[in-house]
Specification:
single chain, alpha/beta, 6-stranded mixed beta sheet, 3-stranded antiparallel beta sheet, 11 strands, 30% helix, binds adenosine-5'-triphosphate, ATP-binding, ATP binding, Metal_Ion_Import_ABC
C-alpha cells in the first residue's frame, strides 16, 4: 500500500472569527499528484498553507496534521521537504535581493541570504543549473523588486526546486507566466513526476493539470465537495454547480480547459 505522506483530519481554520476551512480531511500518498480547484475564496490557498505549516488548524481532539509521518515539526526542517510557490511567498520575496540569492535561499528555507548562510560549491552549481532550467539565469543579478511579476514567478519556481524537495506545493504557480513559459512549466511538472516527486497544485488554470495528475479535489465555501479521478470530476455539470454558472470543458491532447 502506498505510504500516506500528508494527512489532515478534521481541520478547521478561522480568520477574523469566520470559518475559512470547515472540518477538512485530506490525505496525499507518496508519488500521488493532486490538483485543487474551486471558485475564488473557496479555501484552496488556505489548505496549501495548512500543509506547509504557514498556518495552523484550530485545536480539537479529533484534529490531526501528520506530515511525512510526524505530527510535530520544526518548521525549517519541514520546509526542507517542500518546494513552495505562492502569491504570499512572492510578496515576501519582493525585496532588493537579487534573483540568484532568492533561488539559493531555497536551501536554507530563508528569503535571500543572511550573514550566517554559507553557500558551498554544490549549492552554487545546483542554483545555476536550476536557474537555467527555469529560463531565469539572465535574471540572476536583477533585484526582485525590479522584476516583472512573471520574471519573479520564474525565480520562485527555481527556488522551490533548488533543494530537491519531496513535495511541490504550487499555488497559482503559472499566474503571470506567458504562453511559452507555461508550456515550459508543464514540462517541468512532467520532469518532477518522472523524478518521483509529489505534486500538489491549487489552480484556476485546468491546462496546468498535466496528464500525470489524475486526482482532482474541488473546494467550495471552505469544504471539499468532490475528490476523485480527473475524468470523473472535470465534468460540466459538477463544475457548473460548484461555480454557479454554466461551465464548458474541453480536452485536447490530455490537457483540459474550461470557460463560461
Ligand atoms: N488573513 C485573512 N483574514 C481574513 N480572511 C481571510 C484571510 N486570508 C484569506 N481570507 C479569506 O479566506 C477565504 C479563503 O481564502 P483563500 O485564499 O484560501 O481562497 P482561494 O480558494 O485560494 O481563493 P482564490 O482562488 O481567490 O485565490 C476567503 O474568503 C478570504 O477572503
Amino acid at each position: 500500500m502506498d505510504e500516506c505522506i500528508m494527512q489532515l483530519e478534521h481541520a478547521t481554520v478561522r480568520r477574523s472569527g469566520v470559518p475559512i476551512l470547515d472540518d477538512i480531511s485530506f490525505q496525499v500518498k507518496r508519488n500521488e499528484h493532486v490538483a485543487i480547484i474551486g471558485p475564488n475564496g473557496a479555501g484552496k490557498s488556505t489548505l496549501v498553507q495548512l500543509l506547509s505549516e504557514e498556518i495552523h488548524p484550530l485545536y480539537s481532539p479529533r484534529t490531526k496534521r501528520i506530515l511525512f509521518g510526524k505530527a510535530k515539526w520544526e518548521v525549517l526542517s519541514l520546509r526542507a521537504h517542500l518546494g513552495i510557490v505562492s502569491q504570499s511567498l512572492q510578496y515576501l520575496c519582493n525585496s532588493s535581493y537579487k534573483g540568484w540569492e532568492i533561488v539559493i535561499s531555497g536551501f536554507f528555507s530563508s528569503i535571500g541570504l543572511d550573514f550566517h548562510h554559507h553557500c558551498n560549491d554544490r549549492q552554487m552549481q545546483k542554483m545555476e543549473e536550476t536557474m537555467h532550467r527555469y529560463d531565469a539565469w539572465h535574471l540572476r543579478d536583477k533585484q526582485m523588486n525590479r522584476m516583472s511579476s512573471g520574471e519573479a514567478r520564474r525565480i520562485l519556481l527555481a527556488r522551490a526546486n533548488v533543494h530537491d524537495p519531496q513535495v511541490m506545493l504550487l499555488d497559482e504557480a503559472v499566474s503571470n507566466l506567458d504562453f511559452p513559459s507555461r508550456s515550459q512549466y508543464r514540462s517541468t511538472l512532467e520532469q518532477l513526476d518522472r523524478e518521483g516527486k509529489t505534486i500538489i497544485l491549487a489552480t484556476h488554470e485546468l491546462s496546468e493539470i498535466i496528464p500525470a495528475i489524475n486526482r482532482i479535489v474541488v473546494m467550495q465555501h471552505g469544504r471539499i465537495v468532490a475528490d476523485g479521478p480527473k475524468r470523473e470530476i472535470l465534468n460540466e455539470q459538477l463544475l457548473s454547480e460548484v461555480y454557479q454558472t454554466k461551465v464548458f470543458i474541453d480536452e485536447r491532447e490530455g490537457l483540459f480547459s474550461a470557460w463560461c
